[in-house]
Every structure is written in C-alpha cells, then in structure tokens.
Amino acid sequence: MHELAIAENIVGTACSRAAGRPVRRVTVRIGALTAVVPDDMRFCFDVAAMGTAAHGAALDLDLCPAIIFCRSCQADKRLPDRIPLCPCGSADVTVTTGRELDVVSVETA
C-alpha cells in the first residue's frame, strides 16, 4: 500500500506549511494514473496525522481524470483506464493530465 508513504509526505508538507498552527484541512490533487485509491488515502492520512498538528484534519481529494493527446487523431481523449492508449488504438499519445499528486492547499486554525 503506497498510500501510507504518500500520506506521510502529505502530512509532513502540511505540518511544515502550518508552522506550528493546527491543520484543519488539506486539499490534494490526485491524477487517475497515480494508482492512488481515494479511500485508502483517506485512511492512511488519518493514521499518518496522529500525534501531529494535522491530527483530525479533513482531507479533500481533487481527483483528476487521465487525459491524453493523440497524435493520430489530433484530439484530446479521456482514458477509461490507466493504459495510455487512445481509443482509436494508437499508442502515439502524450499524457496531459492524470499524473498529478500535489498538495493544493493547507488550511490552519
């Protein structure tokens, strides 16, 4: 479960940004291609936050779809899964969204 390591980093970042103030809410943008399971992330965040300034903080997840640009179709397409192939069958694609894993905001008391 890689979500625990990610959650520990998120908590560390949030607490660092909070500079000693209690953390109330953390918003994280997560792309579909990161293989992060939202429910697992929420659970791991709560575990990682125990005993820190982020203990009891809410975790908001902004889930981003996987979007590719297909050079064959010359169009943006949403991927139905994590395999970077265009629905037309072309593998000549560029991933434009879906790899995000960013702390967007930290709300403190």
From TrEMBL:
Coiled coil: none annotated. Zn(2+) binds at residues 70, 73, 86, 88. Pfam families: HypA. Ni(2+) binds at residue 2. InterPro entries: Hydgase_Ni_incorp_HypA/HybF_CS, HypA/HybF. This is Hydrogenase maturation factor HypA. Belongs to the HypA/HybF family. One of its GO terms (biological process) is protein maturation. It comes from Actinoplanes derwentensis. The keyword Metal-binding applies. HAMAP family: HypA_HybF. Keywords: Metal-binding, Nickel, Zinc. It comes from the Bacteria. Involved in the maturation of [NiFe] hydrogenases. Required for nickel insertion into the metal center of the hydrogenase. The gene is hypA. GO terms for molecular function: nickel cation binding; zinc ion binding.
